[in-house]
Amino acid sequence: MAKYSIFNNIEESDVKKMLNCFEAKKLHYKKDTTILSNIANTTDIGIIESGSAIIIRYNYNGTRTIIDKLTTGEIFGSFSTSHSEELYLISTEETDIIFFNYNRLINRCKKNCEYHNRLIENMLHILSIKMKTFNERIEVLTKKTIREKLLAYFNILTKKQISKSITLPFSLTDLADYLSIDRSAMMREIKNMKEEGLIESKGKKIYLLY
Fold first, then answer.
1. Torsion, Cα of 106, 110, 114, 117 (10° steps)
2. CB of 105 within 8 A of CB of 18?
3. Exposed (0-12), middle (13-18) or buried (19+): which is 159, by Cβ within 10 Å?
4. What is 117-184 written as a DSSP string?
5. 114-117 contacts at long range (C-beta below 8 A, 24 or more positions apart)
């Protein structure tokens, strides 16, 4: 699904006025930097202007689960997660993020700017897309076997990338964390699927043969 920018149908000059009105700030992060250590408690909305980041949760035994990956144009904040425990936002490459206060967004400014209304509409649209993504992940995680989880996830990617030749948005290590499965067991299953003629793979490239 194509990215739907929070600034869609807003003139660039109006974007600058809006960000000034919201007292927005732009911050740069190097790769593997902790951007937020508790997303649920933030009062800011963040927009990935460039780069990417992952939302992760550490379990009681120290293992991690990747909740989501955010790329250019996507937004995040306490409104975008239902988790009460601490969730970390970690940059996966050089990343620029624009932050502005959530309360300034939901409380209309005195000028009742048209672009303010458009921004809210855009954000709601983005959240509806994000909800669909979360539902897809729940469908994958409810599969009983590693193979079923992998095939379900590959099928989702084929629809999004409109091709049976897909590129994983994660490294294989991160994919295992995203699917909440053991990496070694996942690699064995991928090997078995290749030997059975179900897929071909090279690194993050997967080609579905079925």
1. 10
2. no
3. exposed
4. HHHHHHHHHHHHHHHHHHHHHHHHHT-SSHHHHHHHHHHHHHHHHTSSEEE-SS-HHHHHHHHTS-HH
5. 115/10, 115/11, 115/14, 115/15, 115/17, 115/18, 116/18, 116/21
φ, ψ of residue 22 in degrees (nearest 5): -85, 0
Domains of the chain: 12-140 (2.60.120.10), 143-208 (1.10.10.10)
CA 151, 153, 155 angle in degrees (round to 5)? 70
Structure tokens at 191: 């090997």
* DSSP for residue 16: H
- Residue 43 one-letter amino acid: T
Our CA angle for 67, 177, 156, nearest 5°, is: 70
Residue pLDDT tens, the chain, 210 long: 345 578 888 888 888 888 887 788 999 999 999 999 888 778 888 999 999 999 998 877 778 899 989 998 888 887 655 555 688 999 999 999 999 887 777 776 666 667 777 888 888 888 888 888 889 989 999 999 999 999 999 999 999 999 999 999 989 999 999 999 999 999 999 999 999 999 999 989 999 998
